[in-house]
């Protein structure tokens, strides 16, 4: 099925729809060896050889989007009454995409949206043990004893003991980074509650090797680039 060249360049993570015309104008994009002329030219992604600076661009059938989730949005495809993360994407892009993993409504940061069911299933599966890192602020100082408990495992009432976590604290001991390899319901908030503390701010900064792009403002999104997609798929392949 044919698609516009600018859409091809944006879904493959090469350039945003607004950057694409500039790349084309500079003659950096070729289609089957001929410099592309217009951003709205139609291309056949599966059969045309489309190159950037002479290197072929790999076409992917699936879409992978990084979103910097703001507060107040629900990680679901629909919700009665509350805005969902999908509403932060342009309407023409929403169909078929779903958030891969949940963040609470008041949690911000890295969220992956895709229509790749297999990858998403892996990322969401408890057996994947994919590390997820969060920056947090909490209500009171974390004692050495509490830090040790968070690292080795705490009992989540009625839900068993958490797996070992990595914890790095700032000098104030009221903020830091925590890395967990599970995805239990409200896990970090419940872990902190279990040691008598309270999370006041939570931002996811990475999933496996995929890090939140520091230049992406809250509420904004972009396509994952080739390297980022491969890093997620590598985890999946290693498991098989
Ligand atoms: N843990 C939480 O408590 N909330 C999130 O949104 C993510 C992890």
Name the descriptors.
240 residues, alpha+beta, Structural Genomics Hypothetical 15.5 Kd Protein In mrcA-pckA Intergenic Region, Chain A, Alpha-Beta Plaits, nine-stranded mixed sheet, four-stranded antiparallel sheet, 7 helices
- CATH level-1 class of the largest domain: Alpha Beta
Low-pLDDT stretches are: none
Q: How far apart are the termini?
A: 31 Å
Shape: elongated
Number of domains: 3
Fourth-tier CATH superfamily name of the largest domain: Pseudouridine synthase I, catalytic domain, N-terminal subdomain
Helix/strand class: alpha+beta
Quote the CATH topology of the largest domain: Alpha-Beta Plaits
Per DSSP, what share of the residues sits in E-state strands of 2 or more residues? 25-35%
Helix content: 10-25%
Radius of gyration: 21 Å
Q: Main sheet?
A: 9 strands, mixed
Q: List the ions, cofactors and other small molecules found in this model.
A: uracil
CATH architecture of the largest domain: 2-Layer Sandwich
Q: What is the number of strand segments?
A: 15
Overall average pLDDT: 93
Count the DSSP helices. Answer: 7
